[in-house]
Write a structure and sequence with these properties.
This protein starts with 6 loop residues before the first helix and ends with a helix. It has 19 helices and 10 strands. It is an alpha/beta fold.
Length: 510
């Protein structure tokens, strides 16, 4: 017998899911919520979905509870090289355009699979790149794969798949890139697995672009079958942030059902024979120029012609004297207060303008402003380093970062920033040295512990990684959950704690 759940409960639950995960469940999709809650109820300790819903609605949810809920209401239905026309377009048009110019200039490539589910998509990208770049070991390739469902990420990190994940794929794929296990599963080859970095990320709540979570300066973003789950306003917010994540002329790939001239109006829509992709074309961006400092509108009006005053005025009448007590008092005229003088607001400095442009994702204009300001201090140097890092110009970013370090050698934040850029350059040992320098200057520098934990985790040094993560968690306890740490790109203490806890839990499952 199917359990009856009131529409009021389902409506409130859909609002709760939307506020925490950005996922949109209109009325016609409420049956999906019901199925998910029935599946999740035993994990929350309930025998029926109705009681589980009432409990979920009765108190604030923890991050762990949100993740459990997400694991039951999100769909991870995917397979290798899904949407063949898109991958054909990548192989024939997009990737050659990205690869060829960089063979002699940096050999750097950055791709993000946002909403990677169980990992078939990012591994497909890695396999395609290994086919197209014979000397891929000499390249600095980043394939970031993120999802809101931690269980999907656990499975993806294992790289172990059953026959169903290979439907509609080339017949030689399994033989060439996987090894068969005794359980009739297929395990992806280590050299392909190492190309992909899996991480938890909530597109609705988390910060991006950010050097902290490596979501910056992407050449290509896959965000397929994700936007359809968001409410319209949330879709616009996510698309705007994805636009900022991309380098100039970077590409965004979505599913055919998600294409929209209205939603992606800031992008240039490019029609290929088999697919439509969106390109970050700066000429499609807001054409209104940013006014230089001298062109700002004053906060007051200057009259073109002065007022003509008649100076020959009659002297004021004397104030009347009241002699008769029975006489009505003479009303004294109200004193006219002078009009307040309007004081113009102070003009923003070039640095302040640049910082605002950086926050809007307009990195080219921000760089121009900063260069015009003739930078000579740590703040300007550090902002320029971040600007160029987000533009994907890592050589320039590193040069400005070195200037920032020279300007303030005892600033741990300068060494942390240097480490983040070194990591993007693929110089992991040098990055670790910079992070240790930051900790020497400030042993309580939380983000340095966090970054060292991430590096050790990727190197398979799980004990060292956990030590750094636990140090960071212990230090975070002295802060409020809503506080934002310096250098954290807007990530709150509470969110960083949750990310680190999730990393420790994933280590325990290995």
């Amino acid at each position: 017998m199917t359990e009856s759940i009131s529409n009021i409960s389902l409506s409130r639950l859909s609002e709760l899911i939307s506020s925490h995960m950005g996922l949109h469940f209109p009325t016609d999709r409420w049956p999906d919520i019901q199925r998910g809650i029935r599946s999740a109820a035993p994990e929350f300790g309930f025998n029926d979905a109705g009681s589980c819903i009432q409990w979920l609605l009765s108190e604030p949810l923890t991050r762990n509870q949100i993740e459990i809920l997400a694991s039951h209401i999100t769909v991870g239905e995917t397979y290798f090289f899904r949407e063949k026309p898109l991958f054909d377009t990548l192989r024939e048009h997009i990737l050659p355009e990205l690869i060829h110019p960089r063979r002699e200039n940096g050999r750097l490539l950055r791709i993000w699979s946002a909403g990677c589910a169980t990992g078939e998509e990012p591994y497909s990208i890695a396999i395609l790149l290994s086919k197209m770049i014979p000397d891929i070991n000499d390249w600095n390739v980043t394939i970031l794969a993120t999802d809101i469902n931690p269980r999907f990420l656990e499975k993806a990190s294992l790289g172990l798949y059953k026959e169903w994940s290979f439907r509609n794929t080339p017949p030689d794929l399994k033989e060439e890139y996987f090894t068969k296990t005794k359980e009739n599963c297929y395990k992806i080859l280590p050299q392909i697995k190492r190309m992909v970095q899996f991480a938890y990320l909530n597109l609705a709540e988390d910060t991006y672009p950010s050097l902290l979570n490596d979501t910056n300066a992407m050449d290509l973003i896959f965000c397929k079958n994700v936007l359809m789950y968001f409410a319209p306003e949330q879709q616009k917010k996510v698309i705007r942030k994805l636009y900022q994540v991309l380098v100039d002329d970077g590409w965004l790939a979505v599913s055919p059902s998600e294409t929209s001239q209205l939603l992606f109006s800031q992008f240039a829509s490019v029609n290929f024979p088999q697919a439509i992709l969106y390109r970050k074309d700066l000429y499609k961006k807001d054409r209104r120029p940013v006014l230089p400092a001298q062109d700002f509108e004053p906060a007051f009006t200057i009259l073109e012609h002065p007022l003509e005053l008649d100076l020959e005025v009659e002297p004021p009448l004397p104030w009347p004297v009241q002699s008769d007590p029975d006489q009505h008092p003479v009303a004294r005229p109200e004193r006219q207060e002078p009009e307040p003088q309007l004081i113009p607001e102070p003009r923003p400095t070039l640095f302040e303008e640049a910082r605002a442009l950086y926050g809007q994702g307009n990195y080219t204009a921000a760089a121009d402003k900063l260069i015009k300001s003739a930078p000579d201090d740590y703040q300007a140097f550090a902002l320029l380093a971040r600007v160029y890092a987000n533009m994907g110009q890592l050589t320039e970013a590193f040069e400005w970062c070195e200037k920032a370090v020279s300007a303030d050698k005892l600033n741990p934040g300068a060494h942390y920033l240097r480490a983040t850029i070194l990591q993007e350059l693929g110089q992991v040992n040098e990055a670790s040295a910079s992070l240790k320098r930051a900790l020497y200057l400030d042993p309580d520098f939380i983000l340095a512990h966090f970054a060292l934990g991430n590096i050790a985790s990727r190197q398979g040094k799980l004990k060292e990684s956990e030590r750094h993560f636990r140090n960071a968690l212990a230090l975070l306890e002295s802060y409020g959950q809503a506080e934002v740490l310096p250098e954290a790109d807007g990530v709150t203490v509470g969110r960083l704690s949750e990310i680190i806890s999730l990393m420790i839990e994933r280590h325990a499952c290995v």
